[in-house]
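Methods — Computational structure assignment.
A single polypeptide chain was analysed. Its primary sequence is given first, followed by the predicted tertiary structure written as structure tokens.
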Amino acid sequence: MNQNTIREKKNRAAGYLFPAVLFFYAVFLIFPGAASAGDRQASSIPKAAEESVQITESQTEPDADHPVSVTKTTFSVAGLDRTYRLLLVSDLHIIVPGDPQVDPESADVADSRLNQMFRTPSGESSFQLWQTLPSQLDGMKADMILFAGDMVDFATKASTDSLRAGFDSLKTSWMYVRGDHDYAAWYSKTYETQKDAILLQRHTAPRKKVMRQKIGKLTIIGWDNNTAQMTKKGLRDLKKYLQEAKDEKSPVLFLCHVPLKGTVTDKLEQESLQRNGRALLWGDGDCYYHPDDTTKQALELILAKDSPVALEASGHLHFSYNGPLTETSAIITAGPAFQNRVDELVLVPGNSQ
């Protein structure tokens, strides 16, 4: 591989880096009937959103019996038939120590990311954490596990093999939508293009731009690698799945890596600008990800007033957030898994509007 290729790959990688945030942030909202100790009142939220979305939150610190830190957030969702518990895991950034496929001229950067960026508070690497995390997730007895992307830091056979081994061990149902790092070939000497990395990722989990799974009355729709624009095939599938959810009166949880800009508050956009230096969201204005016509149509479907989407779950930002997305839906971004953090989403039946 020539020096120009190496330089181009490193420049691409640098464009995607953003600071790893080392402290917890969450927004606590009190809506009618959802009061709990320590909650705080949100401001500047339309009354319609307050009446449609109820959120409470608590955090469990790791201990000998529960090594992972769990943030539990409860959402009131109209149309559910029972309570659903889901686990949200994002931004693990697995790097395999001594990975033979790392280009020698990128080894220092890869080692730095392994040993300095992606470590738990107790010092475990993401690779080490992944050896035990699947069994911990299974032990939480959730209805489903949602993996929201950047589970590997860059795609090599070693990193994707490690990821797949963890997936194969899971007894709980799961969905995996990839992020930019899952498809990255930045530091590899073997898989030099994103096309190579995409081929490599085929064995970790099914690949479809827009995917769907159902659990009882709840519909889960996932957008794979939404750092890229929506495809026309993906848009057709999205329209179909959302319409069927409407017809079945099935609330939708929408899973994607990059959060979407909401319609009722810019708090997440401003928080990302402050923490990351860029508003790493899909949308107009200051948002880093600007939609083309196809993606714009997809966003309009998701954010529409009559959309069946009740909750959007994302990652990418490396900090936690929850709050209103639209007047009838909420958004949550996951705390980064490389900090040994998992989000538990509890969806409880709410009043139909």
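Note: The two ends are 60 Å apart (CA to CA).
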